[in-house]
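ingest -> validate -> predict -> emit
validate: passed (alphabet ok, no gaps, 377 aa)
predict: started
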Amino acid sequence: MEENSLIYGLELQARALTPQYGESNDVCFFIATNSLKPTNQLHLLQYDEEQGTIQSKIFEHALGEVWKLNSCPHDARLLASVYNVQKGAQVLSQAALLTLPEDDPNASNNEPLKSEYIPWAKVEVLDTASLGDRVKTIEFHPSQEQTIACVAGNKLAIMQRAESATRVVAEASSNSSGAKSVSSFTSGKWSHHHQGHQFVVLHDSSVRAYDVRDSQHCAWSIDDAHGQLVRDLDCNPNKQCHLVTGGDDGCLKVWDCRMVKAPVFERSDHSHWLWSVRFNTFHDQLILSSSSDCKVLLTCAGSVSSEAVPSDVSEASAQERHKVLSDGLLQTFDQHEDSVYCAEWSNVDPWIFASLSYDGRVIISKVPKQYKYQIIF
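emit:
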Protein backbone atom coordinates (compact mmCIF):
# COMPACT_ATOMS: atom_id res chain seq x y z
CA MET A 1 0.00 0.00 0.00
CA GLU A 2 1.38 3.38 -0.98
CA GLU A 3 1.77 6.09 1.63
CA ASN A 4 -1.64 7.34 2.77
CA SER A 5 -3.50 6.25 -0.38
CA LEU A 6 -7.26 5.64 -0.19
CA ILE A 7 -9.38 3.32 -2.32
CA TYR A 8 -13.00 3.97 -3.34
CA GLY A 9 -14.78 1.17 -5.17
CA LEU A 10 -17.65 1.29 -7.66
CA GLU A 11 -20.00 -1.60 -8.35
CA LEU A 12 -19.82 -0.95 -12.10
CA GLN A 13 -17.04 -0.49 -14.62
CA ALA A 14 -15.80 3.06 -15.14
CA ARG A 15 -13.46 5.12 -17.30
CA ALA A 16 -14.39 8.80 -16.69
CA LEU A 17 -12.77 10.97 -14.01
CA THR A 18 -12.31 14.73 -13.61
CA PRO A 19 -11.46 17.10 -10.75
CA GLN A 20 -14.18 19.52 -9.67
CA TYR A 21 -12.35 22.51 -11.14
CA GLY A 22 -14.78 25.15 -9.89
CA GLU A 23 -14.24 24.06 -6.27
CA SER A 24 -11.44 26.03 -4.57
CA ASN A 25 -11.45 24.70 -1.00
CA ASP A 26 -12.04 20.94 -0.92
CA VAL A 27 -10.31 18.16 -2.86
CA CYS A 28 -13.17 16.83 -5.01
CA PHE A 29 -13.39 14.53 -8.04
CA PHE A 30 -16.24 13.41 -10.29
CA ILE A 31 -16.32 9.82 -11.55
CA ALA A 32 -18.91 8.12 -13.77
CA THR A 33 -19.67 4.52 -14.68
CA ASN A 34 -19.41 2.90 -18.09
CA SER A 35 -21.85 0.02 -17.95
CA LEU A 36 -24.34 -1.49 -20.38
CA LYS A 37 -26.68 -1.96 -17.44
CA PRO A 38 -29.63 0.46 -17.43
CA THR A 39 -28.56 2.68 -14.53
CA ASN A 40 -25.19 4.39 -14.77
CA GLN A 41 -24.02 6.56 -11.92
CA LEU A 42 -22.03 9.74 -11.36
CA HIS A 43 -20.23 10.09 -8.03
CA LEU A 44 -18.91 13.31 -6.51
CA LEU A 45 -16.07 12.35 -4.16
CA GLN A 46 -14.77 14.67 -1.44
CA TYR A 47 -11.44 13.73 0.11
CA ASP A 48 -10.72 14.77 3.69
CA GLU A 49 -6.97 14.56 4.22
CA GLU A 50 -7.10 15.12 7.99
CA GLN A 51 -9.67 12.40 8.59
CA GLY A 52 -8.34 10.15 5.84
CA THR A 53 -11.86 9.64 4.48
CA ILE A 54 -13.81 9.94 1.23
CA GLN A 55 -17.40 11.22 1.27
CA SER A 56 -19.56 10.69 -1.79
CA LYS A 57 -22.73 12.05 -3.36
CA ILE A 58 -24.31 9.81 -6.00
CA PHE A 59 -26.34 10.98 -9.01
CA GLU A 60 -28.10 8.88 -11.62
CA HIS A 61 -26.73 9.14 -15.17
CA ALA A 62 -29.76 7.79 -17.00
CA LEU A 63 -28.56 9.03 -20.40
CA GLY A 64 -26.16 6.13 -20.97
CA GLU A 65 -22.66 4.76 -20.34
CA VAL A 66 -20.19 7.59 -19.69
CA TRP A 67 -16.96 7.75 -21.70
CA LYS A 68 -15.67 11.22 -20.79
CA LEU A 69 -16.28 13.81 -18.07
CA ASN A 70 -15.11 17.41 -17.80
CA SER A 71 -15.98 19.93 -15.12
CA CYS A 72 -16.35 23.67 -15.61
CA PRO A 73 -13.59 25.87 -14.15
CA HIS A 74 -16.04 28.77 -13.75
CA ASP A 75 -18.95 26.94 -12.09
CA ALA A 76 -18.43 24.15 -9.55
CA ARG A 77 -21.95 22.83 -10.24
CA LEU A 78 -21.54 22.38 -14.01
CA LEU A 79 -19.97 19.48 -15.85
CA ALA A 80 -20.05 17.94 -19.32
CA SER A 81 -20.65 14.26 -20.02
CA VAL A 82 -19.98 12.29 -23.20
CA TYR A 83 -21.96 9.06 -23.27
CA ASN A 84 -23.18 6.29 -25.57
CA VAL A 85 -26.82 5.64 -26.41
CA GLN A 86 -28.27 2.80 -28.42
CA LYS A 87 -30.77 3.59 -31.17
CA GLY A 88 -31.88 0.39 -32.79
CA ALA A 89 -28.79 -1.48 -33.87
CA GLN A 90 -26.70 1.71 -33.86
CA VAL A 91 -24.62 3.06 -30.97
CA LEU A 92 -24.26 6.86 -30.91
CA SER A 93 -22.00 9.07 -28.80
CA GLN A 94 -23.71 12.20 -27.51
CA ALA A 95 -23.03 14.91 -24.93
CA ALA A 96 -24.90 16.74 -22.20
CA LEU A 97 -24.30 19.56 -19.73
CA LEU A 98 -25.25 18.51 -16.20
CA THR A 99 -25.93 20.98 -13.38
CA LEU A 100 -25.71 19.87 -9.76
CA PRO A 101 -28.39 21.10 -7.34
CA GLU A 102 -27.49 23.93 -5.00
CA ASP A 103 -26.67 22.92 -1.46
CA ASP A 104 -29.62 23.62 0.82
CA PRO A 105 -28.24 25.15 4.03
CA ASN A 106 -31.49 24.26 5.82
CA ALA A 107 -31.43 20.59 4.84
CA SER A 108 -30.44 18.08 7.48
CA ASN A 109 -27.58 15.72 6.61
CA ASN A 110 -29.53 12.94 8.28
CA GLU A 111 -32.62 13.52 6.19
CA PRO A 112 -33.22 10.45 3.98
CA LEU A 113 -33.25 10.89 0.22
CA LYS A 114 -36.57 10.32 -1.54
CA SER A 115 -34.74 8.11 -4.04
CA GLU A 116 -31.44 6.28 -4.20
CA TYR A 117 -29.92 9.15 -6.20
CA ILE A 118 -29.66 12.92 -5.83
CA PRO A 119 -31.62 14.62 -8.65
CA TRP A 120 -29.94 17.01 -11.10
CA ALA A 121 -30.90 20.68 -11.14
CA LYS A 122 -30.71 20.72 -14.95
CA VAL A 123 -29.74 18.39 -17.80
CA GLU A 124 -29.15 19.92 -21.26
CA VAL A 125 -28.55 17.39 -24.03
CA LEU A 126 -26.41 19.17 -26.61
CA ASP A 127 -27.52 19.26 -30.24
CA THR A 128 -24.56 17.59 -31.94
CA ALA A 129 -26.49 15.89 -34.74
CA SER A 130 -24.84 18.07 -37.40
CA LEU A 131 -21.41 17.04 -36.11
CA GLY A 132 -21.97 13.32 -36.53
CA ASP A 133 -22.64 10.46 -34.15
CA ARG A 134 -19.19 10.19 -32.54
CA VAL A 135 -18.70 12.88 -29.88
CA LYS A 136 -15.28 12.48 -28.23
CA THR A 137 -15.07 15.31 -25.71
CA ILE A 138 -16.62 18.57 -24.52
CA GLU A 139 -14.03 21.08 -23.29
CA PHE A 140 -14.80 24.24 -21.30
CA HIS A 141 -12.88 27.36 -22.32
CA PRO A 142 -10.31 28.29 -19.63
CA SER A 143 -11.39 31.96 -19.46
CA GLN A 144 -14.62 32.50 -21.44
CA GLU A 145 -17.47 31.18 -19.30
CA GLN A 146 -19.99 30.63 -22.08
CA THR A 147 -17.64 29.04 -24.64
CA ILE A 148 -17.15 25.29 -25.03
CA ALA A 149 -15.53 23.14 -27.70
CA CYS A 150 -16.94 19.87 -29.00
CA VAL A 151 -14.74 17.31 -30.75
CA ALA A 152 -16.94 14.95 -32.76
CA GLY A 153 -15.99 12.69 -35.65
CA ASN A 154 -13.67 14.64 -37.92
CA LYS A 155 -15.01 18.02 -36.73
CA LEU A 156 -14.16 20.58 -34.08
CA ALA A 157 -17.11 22.80 -33.15
CA ILE A 158 -16.94 25.91 -31.01
CA MET A 159 -20.23 26.38 -29.14
CA GLN A 160 -21.75 29.20 -27.14
CA ARG A 161 -23.93 28.49 -24.14
CA ALA A 162 -27.12 30.51 -23.85
CA GLU A 163 -30.31 30.45 -21.79
CA SER A 164 -32.34 28.93 -24.60
CA ALA A 165 -29.84 26.39 -25.94
CA THR A 166 -26.14 25.88 -26.65
CA ARG A 167 -25.35 26.45 -30.33
CA VAL A 168 -22.44 25.99 -32.74
CA VAL A 169 -20.74 29.25 -33.77
CA ALA A 170 -17.62 27.97 -35.59
CA GLU A 171 -16.45 24.70 -37.08
CA ALA A 172 -13.28 23.06 -38.40
CA SER A 173 -12.70 19.58 -39.81
CA SER A 174 -9.75 17.25 -40.22
CA ASN A 175 -9.83 17.61 -44.00
CA SER A 176 -9.93 21.43 -43.96
CA SER A 177 -6.17 21.77 -43.48
CA GLY A 178 -5.06 19.77 -46.47
CA ALA A 179 -5.06 16.40 -44.73
CA LYS A 180 -4.94 13.40 -47.04
CA SER A 181 -7.63 11.53 -45.10
CA VAL A 182 -10.80 12.49 -43.27
CA SER A 183 -10.37 10.15 -40.32
CA SER A 184 -11.76 11.15 -36.95
CA PHE A 185 -10.18 13.31 -34.29
CA THR A 186 -9.33 11.40 -31.10
CA SER A 187 -9.61 14.17 -28.52
CA GLY A 188 -8.62 17.79 -27.89
CA LYS A 189 -7.95 20.55 -25.38
CA TRP A 190 -7.89 24.33 -25.15
CA SER A 191 -4.47 25.97 -24.99
CA HIS A 192 -4.05 28.03 -21.81
CA HIS A 193 -2.10 30.57 -23.82
CA HIS A 194 -2.46 32.34 -27.22
CA GLN A 195 -5.16 34.58 -25.67
CA GLY A 196 -7.48 31.58 -25.54
CA HIS A 197 -7.78 31.44 -29.33
CA GLN A 198 -6.15 28.06 -29.96
CA PHE A 199 -7.67 24.59 -29.59
CA VAL A 200 -5.40 21.57 -29.92
CA VAL A 201 -6.76 18.33 -31.40
CA LEU A 202 -5.37 14.82 -31.76
CA HIS A 203 -5.64 13.21 -35.18
CA ASP A 204 -4.29 9.69 -35.68
CA SER A 205 -0.61 9.94 -34.75
CA SER A 206 -0.50 13.74 -35.16
CA VAL A 207 -1.30 16.87 -33.14
CA ARG A 208 -2.90 20.00 -34.64
CA ALA A 209 -3.85 23.42 -33.29
CA TYR A 210 -6.66 25.48 -34.80
CA ASP A 211 -7.14 29.21 -34.36
CA VAL A 212 -10.83 29.44 -33.46
CA ARG A 213 -11.09 32.94 -34.96
CA ASP A 214 -10.30 31.37 -38.35
CA SER A 215 -11.32 27.76 -37.90
CA GLN A 216 -10.12 26.73 -41.36
CA HIS A 217 -6.58 27.75 -40.43
CA CYS A 218 -4.26 25.24 -38.79
CA ALA A 219 -1.98 27.33 -36.55
CA TRP A 220 0.65 24.60 -36.16
CA SER A 221 0.93 20.83 -36.33
CA ILE A 222 3.18 18.02 -35.14
CA ASP A 223 3.03 15.28 -37.75
CA ASP A 224 3.76 11.73 -36.60
CA ALA A 225 4.15 12.86 -33.00
CA HIS A 226 3.95 9.19 -31.98
CA GLY A 227 4.62 5.95 -33.79
CA GLN A 228 0.99 4.96 -33.22
CA LEU A 229 -2.29 6.65 -32.23
CA VAL A 230 -2.00 9.65 -29.88
CA ARG A 231 -4.43 9.02 -27.01
CA ASP A 232 -4.17 12.12 -24.84
CA LEU A 233 -2.56 15.51 -24.42
CA ASP A 234 -2.24 18.28 -21.86
CA CYS A 235 -1.07 21.85 -22.29
CA ASN A 236 1.38 23.22 -19.73
CA PRO A 237 -0.52 25.98 -17.91
CA ASN A 238 2.71 27.61 -16.75
CA LYS A 239 4.88 27.52 -19.86
CA GLN A 240 3.71 28.82 -23.19
CA CYS A 241 3.94 26.55 -26.24
CA HIS A 242 4.67 23.40 -24.20
CA LEU A 243 2.38 20.36 -24.25
CA VAL A 244 2.64 16.70 -23.29
CA THR A 245 1.28 13.78 -25.31
CA GLY A 246 0.84 10.07 -24.68
CA GLY A 247 0.19 7.37 -27.25
CA ASP A 248 -0.27 3.72 -28.11
CA ASP A 249 3.51 3.41 -28.53
CA GLY A 250 3.80 3.64 -24.72
CA CYS A 251 5.72 6.93 -24.94
CA LEU A 252 5.27 10.18 -23.03
CA LYS A 253 6.57 13.21 -24.92
CA VAL A 254 6.83 16.91 -24.11
CA TRP A 255 6.75 19.22 -27.13
CA ASP A 256 7.48 22.86 -27.85
CA CYS A 257 5.05 23.78 -30.63
CA ARG A 258 7.56 26.31 -32.01
CA MET A 259 10.06 23.48 -32.71
CA VAL A 260 8.03 20.47 -33.79
CA LYS A 261 10.69 18.28 -35.42
CA ALA A 262 11.44 16.44 -32.17
CA PRO A 263 10.13 16.40 -28.58
CA VAL A 264 12.08 18.35 -25.95
CA PHE A 265 11.56 15.49 -23.45
CA GLU A 266 10.65 11.83 -23.93
CA ARG A 267 10.14 8.75 -21.76
CA SER A 268 8.95 5.22 -22.52
CA ASP A 269 8.48 3.74 -19.05
CA HIS A 270 5.02 2.27 -19.71
CA SER A 271 4.70 -1.16 -21.34
CA HIS A 272 1.35 -0.52 -23.06
CA TRP A 273 -0.94 2.26 -24.34
CA LEU A 274 -0.98 5.57 -22.47
CA TRP A 275 -4.54 6.70 -21.75
CA SER A 276 -3.89 9.95 -19.89
CA VAL A 277 -1.07 12.46 -19.37
CA ARG A 278 -1.28 15.47 -17.04
CA PHE A 279 1.01 18.32 -16.00
CA ASN A 280 0.83 19.28 -12.34
CA THR A 281 -0.79 22.73 -12.50
CA PHE A 282 1.40 24.14 -9.71
CA HIS A 283 4.71 22.31 -10.25
CA ASP A 284 4.74 21.46 -13.94
CA GLN A 285 7.99 19.51 -13.62
CA LEU A 286 5.73 16.71 -12.31
CA ILE A 287 3.79 14.73 -14.93
CA LEU A 288 1.23 11.99 -14.27
CA SER A 289 0.56 9.25 -16.79
CA SER A 290 -1.70 6.20 -16.74
CA SER A 291 -1.81 3.17 -18.98
CA SER A 292 -3.32 -0.17 -19.92
CA ASP A 293 -0.34 -1.71 -18.13
CA CYS A 294 -2.34 -1.08 -14.90
CA LYS A 295 0.17 1.49 -13.66
CA VAL A 296 0.23 5.20 -12.84
CA LEU A 297 3.65 6.80 -13.21
CA LEU A 298 4.98 10.02 -11.71
CA THR A 299 7.66 11.46 -13.99
CA CYS A 300 9.86 14.52 -13.61
CA ALA A 301 10.56 16.71 -16.65
CA GLY A 302 12.30 19.43 -14.65
CA SER A 303 14.76 20.44 -17.34
CA VAL A 304 11.96 21.61 -19.65
CA SER A 305 9.56 22.93 -16.98
CA SER A 306 8.75 26.50 -16.02
CA GLU A 307 10.70 25.84 -12.81
CA ALA A 308 13.95 25.13 -14.62
CA VAL A 309 16.60 27.75 -13.91
CA PRO A 310 17.74 29.59 -17.06
CA SER A 311 21.48 29.66 -17.62
CA ASP A 312 21.62 33.46 -17.44
CA VAL A 313 19.97 33.67 -13.96
CA SER A 314 22.22 34.55 -11.03
CA GLU A 315 22.81 31.97 -8.31
CA ALA A 316 21.03 34.07 -5.66
CA SER A 317 17.82 34.42 -7.64
CA ALA A 318 18.03 30.78 -8.69
CA GLN A 319 17.95 29.73 -5.05
CA GLU A 320 14.67 31.60 -4.58
CA ARG A 321 12.99 29.40 -7.16
CA HIS A 322 11.50 26.01 -6.44
CA LYS A 323 14.04 23.23 -6.63
CA VAL A 324 13.98 21.11 -9.75
CA LEU A 325 14.27 17.34 -9.43
CA SER A 326 16.36 15.23 -11.78
CA ASP A 327 14.62 14.17 -14.98
CA GLY A 328 13.17 10.68 -15.16
CA LEU A 329 10.74 8.29 -13.52
CA LEU A 330 10.14 9.21 -9.86
CA GLN A 331 7.53 6.71 -8.70
CA THR A 332 5.41 3.80 -9.94
CA PHE A 333 1.93 3.38 -8.43
CA ASP A 334 0.81 -0.18 -9.11
CA GLN A 335 -2.26 -0.70 -6.90
CA HIS A 336 -4.63 -1.03 -9.87
CA GLU A 337 -5.50 -4.43 -11.33
CA ASP A 338 -7.03 -3.21 -14.60
CA SER A 339 -6.36 -0.60 -17.30
CA VAL A 340 -6.03 2.85 -15.75
CA TYR A 341 -7.99 5.15 -18.03
CA CYS A 342 -7.60 8.37 -16.05
CA ALA A 343 -5.15 9.99 -13.66
CA GLU A 344 -5.94 13.55 -12.59
CA TRP A 345 -4.28 16.06 -10.25
CA SER A 346 -6.38 17.81 -7.64
CA ASN A 347 -6.92 21.44 -8.60
CA VAL A 348 -6.78 22.43 -4.90
CA ASP A 349 -3.80 20.52 -3.47
CA PRO A 350 -0.77 20.08 -5.80
CA TRP A 351 0.39 16.95 -3.98
CA ILE A 352 -2.81 14.90 -4.36
CA PHE A 353 -4.11 13.01 -7.38
CA ALA A 354 -6.76 10.43 -8.24
CA SER A 355 -6.61 7.50 -10.65
CA LEU A 356 -9.41 5.33 -12.04
CA SER A 357 -9.20 1.83 -13.50
CA TYR A 358 -11.80 0.06 -15.60
CA ASP A 359 -12.85 -2.26 -12.77
CA GLY A 360 -14.28 0.79 -10.94
CA ARG A 361 -11.41 1.27 -8.50
CA VAL A 362 -10.59 4.89 -7.65
CA ILE A 363 -7.36 5.50 -5.75
CA ILE A 364 -6.53 8.86 -4.21
CA SER A 365 -2.76 9.12 -3.77
CA LYS A 366 -0.11 11.63 -2.80
CA VAL A 367 3.24 12.65 -4.20
CA PRO A 368 5.81 10.89 -1.97
CA LYS A 369 7.06 13.19 0.77
CA GLN A 370 10.69 12.91 -0.30
CA TYR A 371 9.91 14.60 -3.64
CA LYS A 372 7.50 17.11 -2.13
CA TYR A 373 10.12 18.25 0.38
CA GLN A 374 12.85 18.41 -2.27
CA ILE A 375 10.69 20.77 -4.31
CA ILE A 376 9.45 23.09 -1.56
CA PHE A 377 12.51 23.26 0.71
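The mean pLDDT is 90.
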